[in-house]
Structure formats: structure tokens, C-alpha cells
Specification:
Layout (H helix, E strand, L loop, with lengths): L8 E5 L7 E6 L2 E7 L1 H4 L9 H11 L8 E4 L4 H18 L4 H27 L7 E3 L2 H11 L5 E11 L2 E9 L14 E8 L4 H11 L8 H8 L12 H5 L3 E5 L13 E5 L15 H7 L4 H22 L6 E5 L6 H8 L6 E4 L8 H10 L30 H18 L9 E5 L3 H13 L4 E4 L13 E5 L6 H8 L9 E5 H7 L17 E2 L2 H6 L9 E2 L2 E3 L5 H13 L4 E5 L11 H10 L5 E4 L2 E5 H5 L1
Parallel strand pairs: 1-4, 4-5, 6-11, 11-12, 14-21, 16-19
Antiparallel strand pairs: 1-2, 2-3, 6-7, 7-8, 9-10, 13-22, 14-15, 15-20, 16-20, 17-18, 21-22
Length: about 625
């Protein structure tokens, strides 16, 4: 490319189904990646990501016509979908006739048409042209983002989610390639190895159980994962919950074909298509499943669905030879950190990269990458090769908190202090302290945490993805086991998962069994580890009942967050502190300085608020 040639600008758009979002890639580099919920303040917002697109255009001073391609991560066109539909039809041919299946096919078609029309109409209303739009296969988008954001040169890529473009899962062999896209529109270096029909969706079964346990499907599955450690699936017992779920989903040897990896028949995931133990809907109530589970405790039900999930995925990979030293995973099912841990410990697997925004909230990154290389039909004439993609070393792609925003908050805090004097129970006194030196600011925060105070931290650009990674976080001490309950009560959360620890790379091997320096997933809280005895004793607040933790391991980033963590370690001699998301129950993670102030002052999420260079302290933290 000549220096005077304009960069290729690709706007990625997520599926308008749940947790919608958008991103901008400039010559393959991720410039922005955001989700609608952070702007609308509606958790997992399902509306078209109008706020995301407006933010991106305004931040870069762009008009809709300045965008070269608008890439959508769904409905990849007739050519992309035809082979998958054939696979679904073959699945239907092998299964008995079922009203549940016909209902699933009809609803899927109606919803897909509705969402496709909604996306196109909304983009046209915003000033984009049809000629800018490209549609990409849903699971290919998941797979593409997982591989090209990873540091691997080659890997086996696995996706599992509820459904997308007729599928609930795929397996790809991937290797980095500098070759251009071929005449058929297929991206080089990516070979589809296996698919799983959306009629046989393991993620749907997990969501069915999420609703059965009175949680929200596609939202509270993490609660089920945490609850599972407190129950027993009683595998091997015909009356246990594992046996019951085995009637809903199982592995079955295919009657045709040969798996080139094993030279045997392929193994496939199969479900009860009669509708008695399984239906391919997240909110389904299969009558036989509910009847058989009625006598079991919520803990044992959760343990059963977690056990069957780990068993099905791992056995599917092992029996088919879908294992490699380096694995990449994406799709909503891989929000399950216990499943990710099991995959990491399979024979021959050395490292697993979990795309940080693994669910559909991150699908637009994959679609934008595919458009950048000109995959699919009508490639852009200035398309690049995949050599343009660099592994992600950070995920701070959201809006930033600027000094002027913080000054406004400081003026408000000073005004409150003057108006309220000593303060009241409902309107506490707040002191604002300014400390520009990052090291000294970090030491002040660490001292508060060591005293038992809860600190809210909002700094720099916002994280992309479901995890708070230090730019919109709540920090606390790990020494008291009751911290988990006290914080959940304060934040009005009902959680069974423990709080997550954050530490620095030099301390990680002291804390987590099997952790290695190249385990990138540990940077993003997407991997579970068994903890050491020392860590269990010193940091009980972040250790689950099964002896595991879901850590964030910092890798030398020279920002305020790293300084705070290191200052706390230096001050206390303890290897980790608590990092949980800065939000009250039912709300998205805070985005702006005003959101953070509201969480601190109005919702009492924390005792101290760090909005660099200011530290806001309530009277309760000043007297402790």
C-alpha cells in the first residue's frame, strides 16, 4: 500500500439478538470495540447498536459514507448457508418426525428474517448504503476472531453457542496465511473440519437449566456454573442428574463418513428431538426432563448440567481427534471457565486461547476481520491479507474517561462537602484528593484496600467484553472469606461464583497450579486454575469451594491498575487482591465518570472512588 492511499475502514456490527455491539478496524487494527449496553445502561441490550455506531463515528470524525465496508456477523448468504442447511436436512432425515423440531425450524427462520431486516433497515436509516453491507457466517466470525486475536501461528479452533446460521458448533484447522482470499471467497488458512447442528445445541440445554433454576437464560449461566461446585451429579448412578441429562444429549457414532484424523466414523453430538428431554430453545420446558429433575436439589441439577457439558465437549474432541497443542475457542458456551479448564488439561493440549468477548457480544470483531480480507462475495478492491491482523495484547477499546470529566466530578464532590458539612447517613461527606503521581496515587489506593475499604476504579479506556479488567473495576482485600458475601450483598448480587483474584505475573506460579507464562487466557479472566495451598490460606475470598480460582494475571502493563496491584503486594506481602466488575446488580459495568460517581455516591458500591488524578473518600473511609 502506498503511503498516500487511504486506510481501509471496516465497521463490524453484532447480531441484533442479545448484547449487541460494533467495532471499527483500520487496516486490520482494532480501533474501537463496544457494546450497546454500556451506552443505553440496559444490561445485555438487544436493540440495534445505534449508540455504538454513533460513538465510533464521532470519535473518529467519520460520516457513514467514509466507511468502506459494514460487516455483519450473521446470515452469511445463500452460498454460505446452503451446505449447513444440507447438514440440517440430513440430521432431520436420520431423526424421527417431531413437532418440536418443526417448531424450532419455523421460529429460527422467522427470527432470522426479522433480525436481518432490522439490521439493514437501521443501517440505511443511519445513512449507510446497501452497497456497503456484507453478511458473514456466524460461526466463521466466532472462529476468525478467536484465532486472529490469539498469539498462535496455527491452532485448532472450536466454537459452540446457542445457534447461528443453522449451527451450534464448528471445528476449524487454522494457520496464519499471507495469501489473498481465493476466487470462491474462502479465507485462506481456514479449513472447516466439523459442524454441529443447531438442533443439537449444548448451549441451549445449559440455558434450559438456567431458567429451570429461576435464573435468566443467556445471562445467568455463570451462576449455574458456580452453584454446580456445591452439588453432585452422581455420574454412574442411574438416578443421578448426570444420567438424567444423558437422556437429553449424548455422543453418537455417525452412520456414514470417515474422520481423516482417526480413520474411523466421526462422532457427533445428538439430542432428544422428540421434545421430551430436550428442545432447542433457551427457555424450553421439556416435560420429561423437568419431571425427572423435580426430586433433585438445585445444587445437584447444576452439577449435572455442568458435568454433562464438560463430558460432551471433551469426549467429542477426544474421540474425533480434535486436539492440538494450541486451541482457540469462542462462542457463548466458552464463558464457562470450568469447561475451559477441562479442555486445557486434555492430552496433548498445551495452551487454550479464549476470545475475551466470547459470546455474540464480540461477533462483530470476526465479521470485520473477514471483511478486511475480502472474504465472501463482492470483496472490497482494497482488501488486505490476514497478515494485517496482530494478536491482541489488550482489550481497552471503549470510550475513555477524560480529565475534564473528572474535574466536573471533583467540583461536585467539593460542593457536596460544603453543603453537607459532617454529612448524614444518606448523604455522606466526601473528600476529594488530587494526586497526579501515578505511583503515589496507587499507594493511596493500596492503603485503603489494606484497611478493608472497597475501592471503585474507573480509568482510561473501557474494557471490551464481559469482564472488568482494571479500568472499570471494584477492588478489595482477599484475606476475609466473608468478603464474597459482603460485597455481593452491597452490590445487590446473588452469586455462587467467588470473586476473582488479580495478581502480577511474578506471583502467578505461587498462586495457580499449572499456570504458564504463555497462558494468555489468564490475562482476561477466561480460564480456571486449581489454587495452591498457600493461596487458599492467604486469599480465601477468591477461592471457590472446589479449590479453583478464575484469575487475572497482569503482564507488565505500566498503567494505574498495575501500579495499584503491585503496591498492594508490596504493602501487605499478599499475592492478590479482589477484582470484580464496577456495577450494581442488574446494571451494565460503568462506562463514564458520571456512571462511576453514581455507583460510588448514589448506589454505595464502594467506600473510595479512584478517578485519576482524584481520589474520592467517604467519611466512613476517613475514620476507619
Amino acid at each position: 500500500r502506498h503511503r498516500d492511499e487511504a486506510p481501509l475502514l471496516v465497521l463490524g456490527i453484532g447480531t441484533p439478538t442479545h448484547d449487541t455491539g460494533a467495532c471499527l478496524l483500520r487496516d486490520g487494527a482494532t480501533v474501537h470495540a463496544v457494546n450497546e449496553e454500556r451506552f443505553s445502561r440496559r444490561k445485555l441490550d438487544t436493540s440495534f447498536p445505534r449508540h455504538c455506531i454513533s460513538f465510533i463515528l464521532a470519535a473518529e470524525q467519520l460520516k457513514p459514507s467514509d466507511i468502506d465496508v459494514v460487516a455483519l456477523g450473521l446470515f452469511g448468504g445463500a452460498n454460505a448457508k446452503s451446505g449447513q442447511m444440507l447438514a440440517v436436512m440430513q440430521r432431520l432425515h436420520d431423526a424421527p418426525p417431531s413437532e418440536a423440531v418443526h417448531e424450532r425450524l419455523q421460529v429460527a427462520h422467522e427470527r432470522d428474517v426479522h433480525f436481518a431486516n432490522l439490521a439493514e433497515e437501521s443501517l440505511l436509516q443511519m445513512g449507510f448504503a446497501r452497497s456497503q453491507l456484507r453478511w458473514y457466517d456466524h460461526h466463521l466470525c466466532h472462529a476468525y476472531s478467536a484465532f486472529y486475536c490469539s498469539p498462535f501461528e496455527s491452532a485448532l479452533v472450536v466454537t459452540f453457542d446457542g445457534r447461528g446460521d443453522c449451527l451450534s458448533g464448528t471445528v476449524y484447522e487454522a494457520k496464519r496465511s499471507a495469501e489473498p482470499v481465493g476466487p470462491g471467497g474462502e479465507p485462506p488458512g481456514f479449513e472447516l473440519v466439523a459442524t454441529t447442528s443447531f438442533l443439537d445445541s449444548l448451549a441451549y440445554l445449559y440455558s434450559i437449566v438456567t431458567q429451570l433454576l429461576h435464573f435468566t437464560p443467556f445471562h445467568h449461566e455463570g451462576k449455574v456454573t458456580g452453584l454446580a461446585a456445591k452439588g453432585k451429579s452422581r455420574r454412574g448412578d442411574d438416578a443421578g442428574t448426570f444420567a438424567i441429562f444423558s437422556k437429553a444429549i449424548w455422543l453418537e457414532e455417525e452412520p456414514r463418513g470417515t474422520n481423516p484424523r482417526t480413520q474411523k466414523r466421526p462422532w457427533a453430538i445428538r439430542t432428544d428431538l422428540t421434545g421430551q428431554y430436550y428442545k432447542a430453545f433457551s427457555s424450553a420446558e421439556p416435560p420429561a426432563l423437568l419431571r425427572d429433575l423435580a426430586a433433585h436439589s438445585p445444587e445437584d441439577i447444576a452439577a449435572g448440567v455442568q458435568d454433562i457439558t464438560e463430558h460432551i465437549v471433551c469426549e467429542y474432541l477426544v474421540r474425533n481427534g480434535f486436539l492440538a497443542p494450541r486451541m482457540c475457542v469462542a462462542g457463548g458456551l466458552f464463558a464457562n471457565v470450568k469447561l475451559n479448564q477441562r479442555i486445557r488439561t486434555l492430552p496433548g493440549v498445551q495452551n487454550v486461547y479464549v476470545f475475551p468477548h466470547m459470546g455474540d457480544g464480540g461477533i462483530h470483531v470476526g465479521s470485520a476481520m473477514l471483511a478486511t480480507v475480502g472474504a465472501g462475495v463482492a470483496p472490497h478492491p482494497r482488501s488486505l491479507t490476514s497478515a494485517a491482523f496482530q494478536p491482541w495484547d489488550r482489550v481497552f477499546f471503549g470510550p475513555a474517561i477524560y480529565p475534564d470529566d473528572v474535574e466536573d466530578i471533583a467540583d461536585r464532590a467539593v460542593g457536596l462537602g460544603k453543603q453537607r458539612g459532617a454529612g448524614t447517613q444518606h448523604q455522606p461527606r466526601v473528600r476529594a484528593r488530587r494526586q497526579h503521581d501515578i505511583s503515589e496515587h496507587a499507594k493511596l489506593v493500596a492503603e485503603h484496600i489494606a484497611k478493608g475499604h472497597v475501592v471503585g476504579l474507573a480509568y482510561g479506556r473501557m474494557e471490551f467484553g464481559p469482564r472488568a479488567l482494571g479500568h472499570r473495576s471494584i477492588l478489595a482485600s482477599t484475606t476475609d472469606r466473608s468478603t464474597n458475601d459482603r460485597l455481593n450483598e452491597r452490590l445487590k448480587r446473588t452469586e455462587f461464583m467467588p470473586l476473582a483474584p488479580v495478581t502480577v505475573r511474578s506471583q502467578a506460579s505461587r498462586c495457580f497450579k499449572g499456570w504458564r507464562d504463555d497462558h494468555i487466557a489468564a490475562r482476561y479472566m477466561t480460564m480456571c486454575y486449581d489454587v495452591t495451598d498457600e493461596f487458599r490460606d492467604k486469599c480465601p475470598a477468591v477461592v471457590h469451594v472446589d479449590g479453583t480460582a478464575r484469575p487475572q494475571v497482569l503482564d507488565g502493563e505500566a498503567d494505574l491498575y498495575q501500579h495499584i496491584v503491585q503496591a498492594y503486594i508490596d504493602l501487605t506481602g499478599l499475592p492478590a487482591l479482589v477484582n470484580t466488575s464496577f456495577n450494581a446488580h442488574g446494571e451494565p459495568i460503568v462506562a463514564s465518570a458520571a456512571d462511576a460517581w453514581r455507583g460510588f455516591f448514589d448506589q454505595d458500591c464502594c467506600d473510595v472512588l479512584s478517578l485519576y488524578p482524584f481520589l474520592f473518600e467517604k467519611d466512613s473511609s476517613l475514620t476507619a
